[in-house]
Amino acid sequence: MNETFMKEKPVLPLMLSMALPMVLSMMVNSLYNIIDSFFVSQISEEAMTALSLVYPVQNVINAVGIGFGIGINAVIAFYLGAGDNREADRVATQGLVLAVIHGVVMTVCCIAMMPAFLGMFTSSETVIELGVRYCVVAFAFTLVIIVGVTFEKIFQAVGNMKTTMISLMCGCITNIVFDPILIFGYGPFPAMGIEGAALATGIGQALTLAIYLVVYFVRPIRVHIRRQHILPGKGMVWKLYSIGIPATLNLALPSLLISALNAILAAYSEVYILVLGIYYKLQTFIYLPANGVVQGMRPLIGYNYGAGENKRVSQIYKIVLCMSGIIMVLGTVICLLIPSQLMGLFTHTEATIQAGETALRIIGAGFIVSAVSVTSSGALEGLGKGTPSLLISLCRYVVLIIPVALLLSRLFGAVGVWNAFWITEAITAILSLFIYLKAIA
To answer: Which pLDDT value is given to residue 1?
Structure first.
């Protein structure tokens, strides 16, 4: 492959070739999220509530892996664009070492904290027990998740999106297949209940990592893990964390938001906590494909920025904004047309379905305008400008939405929380465009 294709190939075909494999794999991943939750909801409504309460912690684990991986991705792409392959190897090696450390620490901490964490949001012993049982199995695969994401970002940094697509899709499909087998027990497999859902997820994640490792050793890529670079250098660690920490916070902030909204909604009914949990599962079908477009953008925008191709940087941003907008339009239409059918996938309680129908229609009003924030934040991460990207996410997930949700809930009850979403997205879109233009000026 021509090593300079990321700055020579026409922008639109290049962006499509980078983004479409990731969009496809993200759509399969979002389908896994929905199917996984569907099978768990067949156990009981308490099991689905437990999964909803565990979700913020799972999101933090993914945020650390993906966020730090974004730092690795951006710095590798920059050095490749600048023609410095040795430094790119150093980034990959030291990034992997730090990722392993992150995985070990989080495995211990997350398993230990879960009983107390779940007790903050529910007094139901059944929900707490189900949540703990799920977490012990699911969080045992934390190191596998973190290392797998690290290799994902390394492969993406060199423009190898097909391997990432194949690995993610194989892991997700394996998860989907094993979910009912391990939850309900088919053939030689015992019925494991909610632990089966966690184990199916772990098996899928392990397969994804195994594929990355096989491809890395059988068909070497431009960036290599080298023994002489294992000891982290102060300068390199600073570069990785200066992008990785803001990116991690970007991805972890939804966990803070969900926990805050759960606390607000708990004052009204646990039904609304369940509705919020179902919404966050459903919205992955919209935001994960958009995230796939952004993943395709990051190495391109970072490479061209490192190569001094500022005009191409601007073209890439505009194209991605349009692609994200199209995805969000489709998401809005779906939520307006079939909200009750979507909620019915996870619960048969009429009151819950009606509450969820209202929530989806109101929240969906903010999808289209959120494309501006999603694209701007991802572009800034690809350019290595982590702090401005973090400012956008702080607006979306903390600074605006939590106070607005609290105020509107006092006036209109749970419906006020749903309206806080689209109000926040509209204001943040304006702010994010201003932040992006100022950061690249």
So the answer is: 42
Mean pLDDT of 231-253: 82
In this structure, how many other beta carbons lie within 10 angstroms of the beta carbon of residue 132? 17
Listed residue (42, 62, 55, 50) closest to 103, CA to CA = 62
Neighbour tally for 409: CB within 10 Å:
22
Q: Where do we find the tokens 């805050």?
A: 260
Q: 59-77: per-residue pLDDT in tens?
A: 889 889 988 888 898 888 8
The overall average pLDDT reported for the chain is: 88
Q: Are 289 and 30 in contact (CB under 8 A)?
A: yes
How many residues are given for the chain? 441
C-alpha separations of 287 from 36, 327, 329, 346, 373 in Å = 17, 8, 11, 19, 12
The Cα 179–Cα 407 span in angstroms is 40
Q: Identify the DSSP state of 300.
A: H
Q: What angle do CA 376, 378, 384 make, to 5 degrees?
A: 105
> b/e for 143-181, b at 16 or more Cβ within 10 A?
bbbbbbbbbbbbbbbbbbbebbbbbbbbbbebbbebbbb
Contact by Cβ (8 Å): 78, 302: yes
Residue 437's CB: how many other CB atoms inside 10 A? 10
Matching residue, tokens 């509209």: 426
E-strand stretches of 155-281: none
Q: Are 154 and 73 in contact (CB under 8 A)?
A: yes
Asked whether the beta carbons of 203 and 178 are under 8 A apart, the reply is yes
Burial annotation 295-312 (CB, 10 A radius, 16+ → b, else e): bbbbbbbbbbbbbebeeb
DSSP state, 233? Answer: P
Residue 337's CB: how many other CB atoms inside 10 A? 10
Distance CA 159, CA 177 (A): 30
**What type of residue sits at position 44?**
S
